[in-house]
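Hi R.,

As promised, here are both runs. First protein below:
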Amino acid sequence: MELKPLGKSSIKITPIIMGTWQAGKSMWADIDDVETSKAMRAAFDSGITTFDTAAFYGDGHSERILGESLADVRQQVIYATKVFPGYLKYDQVIEACDHSLKNLGANYIDLYQIHWPSGSFGTEIVPIEETMRAMNDLKQRGKIRAIGVSNFSRAKLEEAARYARIARLQPPYSLFWRHVEKETMSYCIENNITILAYSPLAQGLLTGKFGPDHKFADGDHRSSNMLFKPKNYRRVQQALTKLRPIAEKNGVSLGQLALAWVIAHRGTCAIAGARNAEQAVQNAKAAEVSLSTEDFAEMDLIGRAVTDHLDDNPVMWRS
């Protein structure tokens, strides 16, 4: 799998990245540790060498599973993890990083990220200058190699970039969720900040596996995703019907088609989760898909039939 540069850093990452939110189990249903570990190994064996996790995912459980599953190939993989917004004071960032290092069984983190801006979810507001001072010190000490932010608006991203070199932004981005395109994507391209798109499959919607009457199991956070609300969900189903012929023409699955569309954008990689080995293998194959200009443009229009009806709130999950 061809590697891409991570911002202005020396780090090289794969265009398809394995996401491990589901590995933490919390907010998901029917997740099995053994299957998760097999999925991580299958991803690696299929050419995916970049893995995204967070301290928040299962209170470190995702980090621990990742570290255990890839311990013997640590020097061949890239670990990206995140600090939660409730821990953004200087000493808290240092402590959180050390805790993540312990969970991962590693002596350095390739990409360390702020998970959500300060103040999110009712957390205390901490000046970004203080948080970035901690990030810069961690980098100087060799505990992290690059700095990133997640779920930041353009204004917040610009502010963070005044105090540290930002290698990447991690926003939700897919055919069905495109807020980052409005103003932040252009800033990232201009400043060589890599976009690591999370939920590039719209939390499974773009695989086509959810029918018109789908109901989620208790505890599955996707039930509050705005795309699953009735009016939006009907538009999603109509869009999927139009996407299927394009997937069939290219000899790929709907999911692979959707991932290929995301990574076709300049400076953009896709973070795709997997519950089992087969899903990880199929995700990796999306890196081999080359979309024609015509298919890319048609998919763009199909996606807008969904996104043009969404409001300006960039957060996907609302009760």
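And here is the second one, sequence first, then its structure tokens:
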Amino acid sequence: MRSRSSPHSVRNPGMALIIAMAIYLVFGSGQAMSEIKLVFGAYTADKPTSTVRKLKPVLRYLEAALSRKLGEKVTISTQIARTYEKGIDSLVNGDVDFARFGPASYVIAKQRSNGVTLLAMEAVKGKKTFSGIIAVKSDSPIQTIAELRGKTFAFGSRFSTIGRYLSQSQLLNAGIRGDDLKRFDYLDRHDRVGTAVGAGEFEAGALKESTFNKLKKNNVAIREIYRFDNVTKPWIARSGLKPRLSDALREALLEVKDPVVLKAIKKSGFLSGQDADYDFVRSAMEKSRQFDS
């Protein structure tokens, strides 16, 4: 009497060999698939919760894109520094593998560690520039930057491109140094600057356009009196990051087209960049030394 074959048996020896080889290739070593772990760094130019929420879609996209490009599972953890200075330290010291910084922070990090490399630049409507704003309270009689002499002024972080270096450069262009102001202080974050000006704690302050618009939408009583150009944020890699990883990161950023990802950071995409794109920021940083002299 012929025995019946199991419905799960494989009658073709060749097919059985192919299946066995496939199983070995996937599971044969008895070890899990290798995994690349990267740490992303940023600092809080606005509220920490806003920073994390804004960047999450981008990092999830990068995990998937890098996993495809490298043929290995890639996971990205996040390290958010509470100050610009600590954020710069984390990249220079190698505590994070890549980061999203403001232009001045990139310049400082590059000075401290020449091996830091520019991966890509964020694009605003396809361009590498966006605006910084000097604002006053909505009912203030001040109309021009020249009228700020003898007034109080709020800056952001001491390491902020807009919140310090570029705004101080603009004040200097108007003939105003630090001792020409009645008082000034550094409030660390753009949202704090706008809120303090709206509350009348300072007569004027410098902040980025996106935060200015957000505060206005939330009925903070501020008004623009002057705007100036800034170059967009760079995404950068630490010194010593393996070229295959930095190259894959650069490619993945330049290929972003997903509207959900771009909407999260309120940008139109990423552009190729070079260190020279930040030379005018370097000039403003050098010029701002005159502000306190």
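A quick note on the second one: Confidence is low (pLDDT under 50) at residues 1-10, 22-31. Let me know what you think.

Best,
J.
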